[in-house]
Amino acid sequence: MAELVTLDEAKCADLQRGESWGRSFDRGSGEPEIRTMAGFLLPDEDGVDPYSWIDPDLRNLVCACLATEGPDRPELETLVNTASQAATERTEEWYAARDFPTSESDEAIQLILNELIFSA
Fold first, then answer.
1. Residue 12 is assigned to a structural domain of this protein
2. pLDDT per residue over 27-45, tens digit each?
3. Would residue 100 count as lying in a domain?
4. How many angstroms separate the CA atoms of 21 and 101, rounded?
5. Residue-number span of the structural domain to which 24 is assigned
6. Is residue 101 assigned to a domain?
7. Distances, alpha carbon 60 to alpha carbons 9, 27, 74, in Å
8. pTM higher than the cut 0.85
9. C-alpha to C-alpha distance for 43 and 48, rounded to whole angstroms
10. Which helix (H) or strand (E) holds 14?
11. Number of separate domains in the chain
12. For residue range 54-104, what is the model confidence (pLDDT) as tens digits?
């Protein structure tokens, strides 16, 4: 999942070695902090965001899905609702208006799927 989100094979290798695991994560919305195994996706102590091009809602969802404690992970209904809402509202134009450096075009998504899933 991490490689699909980040497109960063080297960082995912770090994950497999156990680096960047168990970092505190503020889910926002007044919810208590949780610990996530996707700490590498989050901005560092100086506020530097290593993956600023990742949709922040997707980043937060992945961090919640990789919570170290099962009860802190989102329920299936939350995942379905979040994904459905994003698929409906987040068009290529939505991302372009926010200066995301990668394209969300059908062609770009197909290239990612081919490289990371079908050619794996």
1. yes
2. 777 888 888 888 888 888 8
3. no
4. 27
5. 2-89
6. no
7. 20, 7, 11
8. no
9. 5
10. helix 9-16
11. 1
12. 778 888 888 899 888 899 999 999 999 988 998 888 887 877 777 666 666
